[in-house]
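Action item from last meeting closed. Structure (176 res):
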């Protein structure tokens, strides 16, 4: 999807409602990041099940894909700049420790994403650990993609925005 396609999709989404603002504000506060256009955040938190029940919405898969690539870049760059990447055998387990569904879900849970996710009725009811972990980790990656696109479309340094979020919320767990 091109930047133009993503902007067109964002523009076609339903407008924010008061309930959206109520759900999204605590996430922004926990993130320490305010979105210039909170529709990006709402999109990042929208599951396929929700879209099945609300066809005028779009699921977060494109943003998740972007966020996954951005996360990999920031973490890899961290290891290269810290010198840990000189021995890929030592850096790879550390990177895996940071970039996995369980870790991403833990961070997402800490940010309060579960309560803000737009899940379908069946998804919300199926609150088993594996499903919950998957929804949260996907939303965390999508959130990074949304932060990037929000910054990019508002003339901000998109890479710096994502770098700051990853450092604040994931790299701090490196030595944990």
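Sequence:
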């Amino acid at each position: 999807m091109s930047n133009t396609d993503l902007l067109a999709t964002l523009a076609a989404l339903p407008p924010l409602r008061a309930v959206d603002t109520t759900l999204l504000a605590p996430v922004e506060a926990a993130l320490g990041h305010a979105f210039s256009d909170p529709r990006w955040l709402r999109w990042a938190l929208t599951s396929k099940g929700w879209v099945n029940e609300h066809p005028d919405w779009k699921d977060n898969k494109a943003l998740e894909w972007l966020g996954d690539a951005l996360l990999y870049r920031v973490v890899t760059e961290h290891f290269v700049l810290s010198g840990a990447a000189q021995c890929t055998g030592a850096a790879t387990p550390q990177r895996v420790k940071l970039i996995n569904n369980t870790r991403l879900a833990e961070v997402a849970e800490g940010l309060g994403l579960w309560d803000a996710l737009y899940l379908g009725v069946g998804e919300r009811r199926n609150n088993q650990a594996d499903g919950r972990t998957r929804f949260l980790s996907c939303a965390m990656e999508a959130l990074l993609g949304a932060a990037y696109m929000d910054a990019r479309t508002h003339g901000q340094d998109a890479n710096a925005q994502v770098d700051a979020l990853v450092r604040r919320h994931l790299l701090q767990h490196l030595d944990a």
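Note appended to the action item: The radius of gyration is 16 Å.
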